[in-house]
């Protein structure tokens, strides 16, 4: 790989950086000296000079194409007579000099936003001015204010958008009701969490018979009504441009950055009870075995008969004569029918071979000051799963309807293991003695079969984690390559247009097909073209050579890349806030001991999840006791040479909280008592995972905790390699006193 490439700079907290070429080629390494003249997120032209000792292409910056324009967030400090801002994002690598007359009204230690006035060079630091003072680091909600700016999450609507939203009517007009099926007398209900504020889906089910006699068709009519956001948000208008730029709502503890203004998200588009609302309906006939025999889409007028919660519905299903059922006596028959169709859909799910793993979701409970009060497991019940399955049914009908019409759209694509991950998974399973065969082209049913066959083993958790990590991340794309985890040939997102822009686009496509026309995307200033999506080494989709994309298809692919990237941005911002809150929370537990479970293993140590607090931290290999440990990559475990003690995913341990690094979002543990080696204890009712939903692949959960652990492992691995930790560091010292706390720093 020689020549010159244009690309985007990605800095690293250790000082070096990478250039991600626009062409999609391998990243180009930039040495710390080269990073002195550029900043994270600059666009540059780089010339590849050589390969470094790790085999990576190494380059030199020959031209700076575009400097980042958005403000940089950091803490204002006064050091050696100079004012500087230390960036919150350590990937910038350089402090920013602030002239005395450019600090505005900020004081030492405050969080500020800085605009650059002079870019960095090989011989000088960047210079800037304070553009905004956010406040003190300990102010309630400051971690969210930092995150939305750090990750460039749009958090303020334009004046044009707010004006357009304000001009919308408070109630439905006669013109809004035209050409719609009136379902206001149908007992549709919304089922959501207790803290939900916007309701974008309502459901209804009734028995259905077709024909006469013993051979009559027995099944259910399932109606899924989704808020008709596309009726109010039109292409090219300010509301649409702001929604596209955000692409998704961003969820933080105690706060949401919505995709749409509140008048829409909590008002006109929210399916509030006893109020007429516009909806797009997926009307399905579901057979007794869970097959969807027929479906149709149409715009409708609905009136939600009740706003129900998951807890309330689960109580009704558990006891149809209990107090909850008595309060909703008129709705109980419909809820029972919903439960029946849900059980039928589960049968079809099992026949498809969709993947299903046991995991535990957690929920952060904050106090009035926005700090963590406690972290609790999120209990999922039959009502949660009922809604998930009905939403999956509507989504798959949407994908089939669009694919059948051969209309461009965004599909939700989830691919299985790459060839490299498949080979690694096969080797690991063989090393662990798993006898279930994995083919060269694995199917979802094979992954599920391995999970089921190893469910009773002591290392079942380790194997489940390996299976989860072998699969790729789901994306939005114009190419329909199916959804591996859910075992669907075509899948899209239709059910959440209030909070996801791809769903809004799908609604527009379905409306266009119903009207026998086409929905054309139009390029605008905010239609950014992302990196080209590569489908494997051969660039194939479902085994076929890709066709040259038309301009319209390229626009759809750009929209898919934009929505996928902003989904990841939202996840990163949410995780950053949660990690900061957890670090702040754990500072109050320094020196305390907790039981935990190993969640990941690397050559430099273990990652442990605490049982009581559901917080992750790292045990460095030097904290494992007086033993020499070797890392077995095939088995994913550390093994002591003298004692044979093994630490793998699922191993039970006892640790002490030894250090908390707010800047790096890291928590360090020290081993205080040996665990139970390679045999984690059998699960009891106390430590059994609360959830049993298919969170690895379902539309509702995207493996947030697991991906965050992977991110921590990779980041720490890079840091260890960059610092060149010698082999002797692997030899653990005997447990000693707690390490001293790090020297206090002025910045967060």
Going across the biggest sheet, name each strand in turn.
3-2-1-4-5
The largest sheet, given as strand count, sense and whether it forms a barrel, is: 5 strands, antiparallel
The overall pLDDT average reads 85
**How helical, in percent, are the residues?**
25-40%
Q: Looking at the chains present, what oligomeric state does this protein adopt?
A: single chain
Helical stretch count? 14
Distance between the termini: 40 Å
* C-alpha Rg (nearest Å): 27 Å
Name some characteristics of this structure.
single chain, 748 residues, OB fold (Dihydrolipoamide Acetyltransferase, E2P), 4 domains, five-stranded antiparallel sheet, 26% strand, disordered C terminus
Structure description:
The chain has 748 residues and is an alpha+beta fold. It has 4 domains: 64 residues, OB fold (Dihydrolipoamide Acetyltransferase, E2P) (Beta Barrel), CATH 2.40.50.140; 65 residues, OB fold (Dihydrolipoamide Acetyltransferase, E2P), CATH 2.40.50; 294 residues, no CATH class; 141 residues, Nucleic acid-binding proteins (OB fold (Dihydrolipoamide Acetyltransferase, E2P), Beta Barrel), CATH 2.40.50. The protein contains 14 helices and 31 strands. Helix 9 runs antiparallel to helix 11. The longest helix is centred in the C-terminal third of the chain and has 36 residues. The chain is globular, with a radius of gyration of 27 Å. The C terminus is likely disordered.
